[in-house]
User: Fold these one by one.
Assistant:
Number 1:
Amino acid sequence: MCQLDQRPLRKYERRPDTHPEPRLGHSVTEDLLLGAKEVHEALCAPPSQRIGNFDTACATVPARHVSGDFIVSFELGGSWFLALGDLMGKGLPAAMWLTHVLDLLHRSCETGQTLAGMMACLNGEMYRSRVGVPLTSLFLAQLEPATSSVTYSCGGCSTAFLLAGEQTVTMLQSGGPILGAMERASYSSSTIDLGLHDTLLVASDGIIEMHEGSSFELRPDRVVHHLKFTAGDSAASIVQSLLARARVASPALSDDLSLMAVQRVA
């Protein structure tokens, strides 16, 4: 059984309080929601990032004021970890768990196990949590910045896609069940070698299930078509163009939308 280091929770730097009093025309509730959104943005990965031989791009659009989805990146022991997660629920009730789940994620990655072992460790800690952490789907990737190697595992999340060359798209499915549902769940992981300009795309279920059953439904095959259409584009361009298509399809969102792309550029 994995036991995490019981150190105090990681302390995140607090940004200066730029509006301690409700601003003119804003209610206290609106200011609190704005503050929660700023905390969410501060904890999550930047929209674009260069990590060794890879370019990364990501975007999260909340269905309500604050997203229950999250995308994070961090370095540990020379490797980089990228995660796209979806906490069960929407808005502030889901987002309030973000700092706790991120702390468990960091500690699980610090165990030095294989990626599959890290996922199993995180799952067990979430299941045994004394504060009732919500079920969470998670795509976790480990990048070796100086190489072409990416190891990934999906915990109950939407399928990831690998665009190799300009026309070959593969669905990546190694992983296991949603995190926190079963104490001793097992997970698998796979390692892929990205060729130059190959792109890994991960989409939350808010993208895949959008307008299910309608002509606008972004089924996996349509995401594949989009990847083929945007072959040769940058990671940021692929994310933004698919996000624009999603916004046109559903101006009023019913679920949070998140996208993350990793592209080998050197």
Note: The mean pLDDT is 85.
Number 2:
Amino acid sequence: MQLLISVAGPAEARAAVRGGADVIDAKDPRRGALGPVSLHRLAAIRGAIAGARPLSAAVGDATSEEAVAGAVAAALSVGVAFLKVGFAGVTSEARARRLAVAARRAVETDVMTRLVLVAYADWRSVASLPPARVVAVAADTGAAGVLFDTATKHAPLFAVESPAAVAAWVAAAHAAGLFAALAGGLSGPDLARALYLGADVVGVRGAACVGGRTGRVSRARVAALRALADAAPSLRVPIGRGVLPQRDVELAEIVSRDDEVFHAVRERA
């Protein structure tokens, strides 16, 4: 399990690296779930991490084949390991495929970069595809992985989708040969639940920040996540009538009263 921390600038990137994040994700939280940072800022973030961690970048929701190819090419010019593309405003699966193919063709110019397509749990509110269809599009167009996120940020992932539905989505992604990432206001019990549903990556912004998702990433909060992750046992989580098989995990449960946990970790240090 990989811990991805979303950052808006180089200072936050350094804090996330020093705190122990596995992947650094560049995005502007003021511009939505997939708000891209400027190329200048993306380059500054890349310079700040200096190859210490893989860099991911959000390029926004695809609006046209030309626009998404251009956005991907621009990010590739800076150098990133992962590129995230969403489909808000796209309700046609055929159109989503065309957009995804345009993005993948642009990504193919750099053999080190992987394409990640984003499904929204609140897809109806942003006129997007159902999450299961995004998995199908990703599998059909050569993407490397999929991310299950929330578009509006009005509610966390598990307030929009049930654990059973998320578990089924993760399983479908794996069956299609894709890696599966979860994000969307994941903190406290929501984040803990996501960790044990089989996701390969868990993305965090708000729980790693002082002042919420539009605040600033704190090295101490990222370090607390990392310390708890290293100490976390494997769990069995009931889903519906069944039980998920026990899994090895690398990210710990974060209880809902985050500040008390961070204080306790500092006291033990």
Note: Residues 16 and 28 are 15 Å apart (CA to CA).
